[in-house]
Amino acid sequence: MIDFGNFYQLIAQGPLASWLEVLPAQLAAWQRENLHGHFRNWTKAVDNLPQLTPQHLDLQHSVTADSDELSDRQRQGIEKLLRALMPWRKGPYSLYGTVIDTEWRSDWKWDRVLPHISPLTDRTVLDVGCGSGYHMWRMIGAGANLVVGIDPTQLFLCQFEAVRKLLGNDRRAHLLPVGIEQLPELKAFDTVFSMGVLYHRRSPLDHLYQLKNQLVSGGELVLETLVIEGDEHDVLVPGERYAQMRNVWFIPSAAALARWLEKCGFVDVRIVDFSRTTTEEQRRTDWMTTESLADFLDPGDNSKTLEGYPAPLRAVLVARKP
Ligand SMILES: C[S@@+](CC[C@H](N)C(=O)[O-])C[C@H]1O[C@@H](n2cnc3c(N)ncnc32)[C@H](O)[C@@H]1O
């Protein structure tokens, strides 16, 4: 059901064409080898969703689609199929009356990022670690010409394809289930986003180089990640877990991160936002019913994680490839 042929055709003639030297083989291997036990059920849910052309579509202020012509029964059918793709972490989405109240208010992150970046109008954009693709749709809403998201998590690909179908099979955004480390040096994107990914990378400076290698000369990197308070010498290297996550390797201060970016050859490095993650922004909902931030903080002192580290603080940095 998930057919990448459209994407191959789309990029065949343009600056992303060199990707075709590796991508079809990578995705064929992925389809052969790695499918999650529930993948078939997820794709069945996507297949069973109707392909709708929304009469009302908003990607600028939210991700909302609706149509006056749908019956209550059709609306209930859509909600049921979307629930088959739980847990929903990144959103929210409002699709034909179903409001997917996701674990994260990803719209709040977008509101913190958008005022500080170069206008996305007509840009070709890469979103590394895009999750269900919520920000990709907002990037389209902000005028991007083409948005490519990469994320190896298979449920997120199915959630993205479900949303895409309900948005009228919109082909301005594409999600590919590959990791950043699998990308060749494309040097083809005007803006590259890496949001919520750096602290999951074992080698954060290599991650910054990998991001730089995807940008055109003069292109912009938008980096959002966990940070600690401190100066350019301060970096937290957590033990086995940070806020119960096992795969957190390095949490630098924003000043240290700015220095890393400069060491990797970025220029015009700006720290544009700090925000403490609250239990209003990340929480358990009807669409993500397991543990969330409130369960990962010290119950006696919410300024600390359960492990005694500083509670999640996030920064947004913007930099340019010369
Ligand atoms: C914390 S989420 C951030 C999602 C979204 N960018 C946001 O800011 O809300 C991190 C995402 O990175 C993805 N990820 C993990 N390893 C990755 C890799 N090697 N390359 C690209 N994405 C990866 C995960 O599947 C997950 O969706």
TrEMBL record:
Annotated positions binding carboxy-S-adenosyl-L-methionine: 90, 104, 109, 129, 151-153, 180-181, 195, 199, 314
EC number(s) per entry: 2.5.1.-
Organism listed in the record: Mixta theicola
InterPro entries per the UniProt record, alphabetical: CmoB, Mo5U34_MeTrfas-like, SAM-dependent_MTases_sf
Subunit structure: Homotetramer.
Family stated for the protein in its record: Belongs to the class I-like SAM-binding methyltransferase superfamily. CmoB family.
UniProt keyword Transferase present: yes
Highest taxon, organism lineage: Bacteria
Annotated catalysed reactions: carboxy-S-adenosyl-L-methionine + 5-hydroxyuridine(34) in tRNA = 5-carboxymethoxyuridine(34) in tRNA + S-adenosyl-L-homocysteine + H(+)
Protein name (Swiss-Prot/TrEMBL): tRNA U34 carboxymethyltransferase
A GO MF term: transferase activity, transferring alkyl or aryl (other than methyl) groups
Keywords recorded for this protein, A-Z: Transferase, tRNA processing
Function text: Catalyzes carboxymethyl transfer from carboxy-S-adenosyl-L-methionine (Cx-SAM) to 5-hydroxyuridine (ho5U) to form 5-carboxymethoxyuridine (cmo5U) at position 34 in tRNAs.
Keyword set includes Transferase: yes
